[in-house]
Design a protein that fits this description.
With 503 residues, this protein is of the alpha/beta class. 47% of the residues lie in helices and 12% in strands. The strands form four sheets. Strands 7-4-3-8-9 form a five-stranded parallel beta sheet, with helices on both faces. The chain has a four-stranded mixed beta sheet with strand order 2-6-5-12, sandwiched between helices. It has a three-stranded mixed beta sheet with strand order 10-13-14, covered by helices on one side. The radius of gyration is 23 Å and the shape is globular. The structure holds D-mannonic acid (CS2). The site of D-mannonic acid has 9 residues, from helix 11.
């Protein structure tokens, strides 16, 4: 039988055609529900994470007030708009592991707005009384956060544009939209919505709070800035689910195995996790009913964030940059190399673990073992270029803090330096076999010029203060280790060099 196009009309037929081996939404949608969450940045991760938790709330717990209105801020999001509209905003989540492939159709995204189509409509949606939460997956660069000063990049042309009162109805950045909508809610006597960051950043909520209140102050509106600071809520959170980019083969497999024609399904691992601080300014759904850890103690959240960012995302960087130089394409391929796997294990155990806080009930060694298993999952085909994307927002978050803490306690850090050195080499855009590859990074032009000027001397790149601050450059042991790793990689390549970094 020909595959059935995913849409509301075909839903029951899809379920019966695959003998109900697929979960479909049986809850109310469209005008029968309220859109309590507006989400900016509907990509693979959001569709495999928050939207799945909300789907479970709607499916199993009869929640009707927190359906999601998706928002896309970039022109590239037009494809997501068209795809979702053509499928009544539904899509398939395919979970893959050694146990097999499981498909769920998710219906928690109820509508979608592309900012470029109508910016005012996005502001109005956020300002609507039904909206209780605005959630974000806008990547590190979407926060305009200066890692060195910890302040908003107020000179950035996008922020400058949004700070001009003449543009208040036509914002460009997340903060422009949040500010315009919150000012409108303030005038209407509503509560501020909760701004819920779902990005991989230590203290993601606190950073969002600081960036937004700084924006409001610079906008010259102290009253709104104070109202946001006092009445607003910005929960910190640790989010986790490995979600590769969807490939054409994934769409074909869905047609073949489940008879579903979905223009943009999501492939992910079975594992998912979310720890969030219980700070909400205008209500929230009972996330804990679907397995989310909603915790009162902000320090506990920060500890979970630290574990996850430094062990999972840090290891991903260690797989990504050296792995791409070595010519690998997928995460599981890297893990199949014994030396490389040992390198990762020793980096986590000897160089990252010592600076991590103990969390009651969490065994770090078990956590590391689970990570090795998750990375080794060959069925999800997680792409190295995905892991390597936007490194300037990742290395300072995932690798440098572990190095800085190892420096303070004179602990070991040469493997972490190897990863940073591999990134510096990666910035040349050529792998160890001489093959060119593409790099996506908002700071690419500046960083690539410095990588080329520096050669095997790390000082050129380490002088980028917004990424590395001022302190690291002054540590002789660190600079020497970086230089050695850069020379090793330049001379012999990653795979020949790696045994030197394994005990
Ligand atoms: C990855 C993350 O892009 C990256 O750097 O490490 O997307 C990672 O897959 C998720 O954070 C897993 O929760």
């Amino acid at each position: 039988m020909a595959p059935l196009k995913l849409n509301t009309k075909n839903l029951t037929q899809i379920a019966s055609a695959c003998k109900n081996a697929i979960k479909i939404p049986s809850y109310k949608r469209d005008n029968a529900v309220k859109e309590g969450i507006v989400h900016i940045g509907v990509g693979g991760f959001h569709r495999a994470h928050l939207a799945v938790y909300v789907d479970q709330l709607m499916q199993k717990h009869g929640v009707t007030d927190y359906a999601i209105a998706g928002v896309g801020l970039t022109p590239f999001d037009a494809t997501m708009r068209d795809t979702l509209r053509s499928q009544d905003h539904m899509y398939t989540v395919i979970e893959r592991s050694a146990k097999g492939s499981f498909a769920n159709i998710v219906g928690s995204i109820n509508s979608y707005l592309l900012a470029a189509d109508d910016r005012e409509a996005v502001v109005a949606k956020m300002a609507h009384p039904d909206t209780r939460i605005v959630s974000l997956t806008i990547t590190e660069s979407g926060y305009y956060y200066n890692e060195n000063t910890h302040e908003l990049q107020s000179e950035h042309p996008d922020i400058q544009y949004d700070l001009d009162p003449a543009n208040e109805k036509q914002p460009k950045t997340t903060f422009g939209f949040l500010y315009a909508a919150l000012a409108r809610r303030h005038a209407a006597g509503l509560n501020p919505f909760t701004v819920m960051s779902c990005d991989n950043m230590q203290k993601n909520g606190s950073i969002t709070r600081h960036m937004l209140t700084s924006f409001a102050k610079l906008r010259g509106n102290d009253q709104i800035a104070t109202w946001i600071a006092e009445k607003g809520a910005f929960p910190n959170a640790m989010v986790d689910r490995i979600t590769p980019q969807t490939s054409p083969a994934d769409k074909e497999a869905l047609k073949e195995n489940f008879g579903i024609d979905d223009a943009w399904p999501v492939v992910t691992e079975p594992f998912m996790d979310w720890v969030i601080e219980d700070q909400f300014s205008d209500g929230r759904p009972a996330f804990e009913k679907v397995g989310v850890k909603v915790v009162k103690d902000v320090h506990a959240v920060e500890q979970f964030e630290k574990h996850k960012l430094r062990l999972l995302n840090g290891s991903h960087s260690a797989i990504g940059y050296p792995g791409q130089l070595a010519g690998y394409a997928y995460v599981h391929e890297v893990l199949a190399n014994d030396t490389y796997r040992t390198f990762l294990w020793q980096m986590m155990q000897q160089e990252v673990k010592p600076s991590l806080p103990e969390i009651p009930g969490v065994n770090i060694d078990d956590y590391c073992k689970t990570l090795i298993e998750r990375f080794s999952n060959p069925t999800i085909m997680d792409q190295l270029p995905r892991i390597c994307l936007n490194a300037s927002g990742k290395i300072p978050q995932f690798i440098m803090p572990s190095i800085a803490e190892a420096i303070w306690v004179t602990g070991p850090f040469r493997r972490l330096c190897f990863v940073a050195a591999a990134w510096f080499r990666y910035l040349h855009g050529v792998d160890d076999a001489g093959n060119k590859f593409d790099i996506e990074d908002p700071m690419l032009a500046e960083l690539q010029a410095k990588a080329k000027a520096g050669g095997t001397d790390p000082m050129e790149l380490l002088s980028v203060k917004s990424l590395f601050g001022d302190d690291l450059r002054g540590d002789e042991r660190f600079v020497k280790t970086m230089k050695e790793a850069m020379e090793d990689i330049a001379r012999d390549g990653v795979l020949k060099t790696m045994p030197k970094y394994v005990d």
